[in-house]
């Protein structure tokens, strides 16, 4: 029995209507950090603005809009999906999974659904799981939607991290095809995935889990927000992203100069520029849009892919490396040939 191939059959994205500029953020931060400027935020993060969800706009709502856009462009009925996966760290509820809330909004009763919680690496981890399931003939038509409401998880009093918070969602539709129908070798070709639990304490949300539950007494504790050791995350992110790109290209026997696009998790503009320099690839080949959307965690990579595809910059046959780094620590990369 021949192994099934996995191709990208569609993309779609959704960004909340409200845009918060650095100028507005500086006004908010003036009382606690009066020396904060728009230029400082851009220099440290690469972010100029971010989209912020409305108070009553949930992660599954954004996921639904991205899913709808993706399925509409692909000409696929949501009821035909047989698996729905949502990588997220900012789900509607601890349980059920945000994928279940999304499935209900899509009025799909055929699929099974689950979330992937791997922080900023969630999208690539989800792609790996879905690819294995399709190749094992467990699913044929799968929707993967990275969706985040990160504005709810960052401390608005922390000027070093809050400017990075962005909300949004983006979807990829993955389809199973036989190798006999894929003469151009399109689709997902390989992964490189790693993690290091010894670093779990460096980037986390301390409050709200079973180790330290939310109570009436601690509901206003800043530990309910994301906490990180910024310098350590920065250093490890650069090293592990470079490792991931090299690792996946070694696995698939492709040279860096053959790659058309390097699409990385949009953690920080400076990180992406450093990664390009250490890889020795032109920064023009590394897609960067953090200036418009900030860090939308598991949604950054699919947002990039949808923008590239929609603009016509991503063409059939293009060789693409997706790469990431996130909490855990987790990191990894995916190599694919665009087209279906």
From TrEMBL:
Its EC number is 2.3.1.180. SUPFAM superfamilies: Thiolase-like. The keyword Aminoacyl-tRNA synthetase does not apply. One of its GO terms (molecular function) is 3-oxoacyl-[acyl-carrier-protein] synthase activity. GO terms for biological process: fatty acid biosynthetic process; secondary metabolite biosynthetic process. Residues 266-270 are annotated as: ACP-binding. It is an enzyme of class 2 (transferase). Gene3D superfamilies: 3.40.47.10. Residues 114-196 form the Beta-ketoacyl-[acyl-carrier-protein] synthase III N-terminal domain. InterPro entries: ACP_syn_III_C, ACP_syn_III_N, FabH, Thiolase-like. Pfam families: ACP_syn_III, ACP_syn_III_C. One of its GO terms (cellular component) is cytoplasm. Its main location: cytoplasm. Keywords: Acyltransferase, Cytoplasm, Fatty acid biosynthesis, Fatty acid metabolism, Lipid biosynthesis, Lipid metabolism, Multifunctional enzyme, Transferase. Residues 249-338 form the Beta-ketoacyl-[acyl-carrier-protein] synthase III C-terminal domain. The active site is at residues 120, 265, 295. It catalyses: malonyl-[ACP] + acetyl-CoA + H(+) = 3-oxobutanoyl-[ACP] + CO2 + CoA. Catalyzes the condensation reaction of fatty acid synthesis by the addition to an acyl acceptor of two carbons from malonyl-ACP. Catalyzes the first condensation reaction which initiates fatty acid synthesis and may therefore play a role in governing the total rate of fatty acid production. Possesses both acetoacetyl-ACP synthase and acetyl transacylase activities. Its substrate specificity determines the biosynthesis of branched-chain and/or straight-chain of fatty acids. Homodimer. Belongs to the thiolase-like superfamily. FabH family. NCBIfam families: fabH, PRK09352.1. The last Arg residue of the ACP-binding site is essential for the weak association between ACP/AcpP and FabH. This is Beta-ketoacyl-[acyl-carrier-protein] synthase III. The gene is fabH.
